[in-house]
Specification:
Largest sheet of chain B: 6 strands, mixed
Helix content of chain B: under 10%
Structural class of chain A: mainly beta
Strand content of chain B: 35-45%
Number of strands of chain A: 11
Radius of gyration of chain B: 13 Å
Shape of chain B: globular
Order of helices and strands of chain A: EEEEEEEEEEE
Number of strands of chain B: 9
Largest interface: A-B, 23 and 28 residues
Strand content of chain A: over 45%
Distance between the termini of chain B: 35 Å
Distance between the termini of chain A: 40 Å
Oligomer: heterodimer
């Protein structure tokens, strides 16, 4: 059974940093693209970033470019999202998702990030 | 990258069929057949219902079907059931190697 478990969320002040983690199990992590998707309170889904199997390709939504960095450690079956220079509008539940060709087929339960002073 | 366009809400009675539209551009939805649909119940994670326009993952009811014409994709739910009441999101790959979602549609089963 595929399991994706996010962690690392919490309350952070504007301008601060957080590192999210996603622990994967139940599948061969190193063979899948992986993705971060977020959802602000009461709002819709927003794709944030995705990363190729070997980490050589990374893509971001325009609003987080230069502030967020997606990475992975295939030896640890883990996906990460380093978030710097956080803003109030980054407040959201952050989901990691497995990303086979053309879709997102399994999702974690999410971790809440709140940016507030 | 602008979000795909979905109706904010749709409704239907049990047993009826409803269709949710999702409109994009020639740079995203119209460019590829990488269109997916996700169901999200309140407080839960999204669940994949349709991928690559019209394919159903294992375990998803055949009451759910998808299609696409040009820059518009559609999700049809037939034989509406109370448990179908949820938010539905479309998503598409884009020419920029990114992804974009629709704004979401709230389905109410009357």
């Amino acid at each position: 059974e595929v399991q994706l478990v996010e962690s690392g969320g919490g309350l952070v002040q504007p301008g601060g940093s957080l590192r999210l983690s996603c622990a994967a199990s139940g599948f061969t992590f190193s063979t899948y693209w992986m993705t971060w998707v977020r959802q602000a309170p009461g709002k819709g889904l927003e794709w944030v970033a995705h990363i190729k199997q070997d980490g050589t390709e990374k893509y971001y939504v325009e609003s987080v470019k230069g502030r967020f960095t997606i990475s992975r450690d295939n030896a640890k079956n883990s996906l990460y999202l380093q978030m710097n220079s956080l803003r109030a509008e980054d407040t959201a539940v952050y989901y990691c998702a497995r990303h086979p060709h053309g879709t997102f087929d399994d999702w974690g339960l999410g971790t809440l990030v709140t940016v507030s002073s | 990258q602008s979000a795909l366009t979905q109706p904010a809400s749709v409704s239907g009675s049990p047993g009826q069929s409803i269709t949710i539209s999702c409109t994009g551009t020639s740079s995203d939805l119209g460019a590829y057949n990488y269109v997916s649909w996700y169901q999200q119940h309140p407080g839960k994670a999204p669940k994949l219902m349709i991928y690559e326009v019209s394919n159903r993952p294992s375990g998803v009811s055949n009451r759910f079907s998808g299609s696409k014409s040009g820059n518009t994709a559609s999700l049809t739910i037939s034989g509406l059931q109370a448990e179908d009441e949820a938010d539905y999101y479309c998503g598409s790959y884009t020419r920029s190697n990114t992804w974009v979602f629709g704004g979401g549609t709230k389905l109410t089963v009357l």
